[in-house]
Design brief:
The chain is α+β, with helices and mostly antiparallel strands. The chain has 2 domains: 57 residues; 148 residues, GAF domain (Beta-Lactamase, 2-Layer Sandwich), CATH 3.30.450.40. Helix content is 45%, strand content 20%. The protein has 5 helices and 7 strands, in the order H-H-E-H-E-E-H-E-E-E-H-E. A hairpin with a 2-residue loop joins strand 2 and strand 3. The longest helix has 27 residues.
């Protein structure tokens, strides 16, 4: 059954029952004592149904709708990486794109964009704005649950323009993992913990790999 219909069902039934009781009282010339008691019981039941429906609106909030992000599907890897690092970045981004609501993955490390994958806008250059600067300096993640509500959303112009939610997860003290989602308020606490662990693994691999050398960007 449709979840939205289920949530509104008590309101509809309670309201309809109240209207029918009112019509029954209006068209009944004489009421017996038993009919009056039945009407009182019916009013109580309708009131309880309406109250239940109102409570459900608060306890079961409406799930936000997903949007189709504006951009093209693609993947870009920094060419100055060894094959092992390329494989690890490809694996990590694949896991994020297939197991979470993430639709865009960007890995920024030591001043270089190492990876762009998922739904990508035309602009590829990542500029460090106040939010990313805070993440890099404080080494603490920032989760923007609904990007449209934040004045700082304009710094994320390297993500699809209708991105709904963003996680900026530090990669050690030298980089940041930027994830864009197509649904607001969609990452759970478990997702955040798992993303943090994945960023730690990437930081360890990047620090210990001597093949990391500046070069041109290779598009796959």
């Amino acid at each position: 059954m449709n979840s939205n219909f289920t949530r509104f069902l008590p309101l509809v039934v309670g309201g309809l029952g109240g209207v029918l009781l009112l019509l029954n009282r209006f068209f009944t010339a004489e009421l017996t004592n038993s009919q009056s008691r039945s009407d009182v019981l019916g009013v109580l039941l309708c009131s309880l149904l309406i109250l239940t429906g109102l409570l459900w609106q608060q306890v079961q909030p409406r799930i936000p709708d997903a949007v189709v992000l504006e951009g093209v599907q693609g993947m870009e890897l920094y060419n100055g990486l060894g094959e092992q690092l390329k494989l690890e970045l490809a694996w990590a981004s694949h896991i994020l794109l297939t197991n979470t609501v993430t639709k865009t993955v960007i890995v920024y490390y030591q001043g270089i964009v190492l990876l762009r994958r998922g739904i990508l806008p035309e602009k590829s250059q990542l500029t460090i704005g106040p939010i990313l600067e805070r993440v890099l300096q404080g080494s603490r993640p920032v989760y923007l649950v609904s990007l449209s509500l934040y004045p700082g959303r304009f710094e994320f112009d390297y993500l699809p323009s209708n991105t709904q939610g963003v996680i900026c997860q530090p990669i050690g003290k030298k980089g940041v993992l930027v994830l864009g989602a197509n649904v607001p308020r969609s990452y759970s606490k478990q997702d955040e913990n798992w993303i943090a662990a994945l960023a730690e693994k990437l930081d360890s691999s990047l620090l210990n790999d001597t093949s990391f050398q500046p070069s041109i960007v290779e598009s796959l």
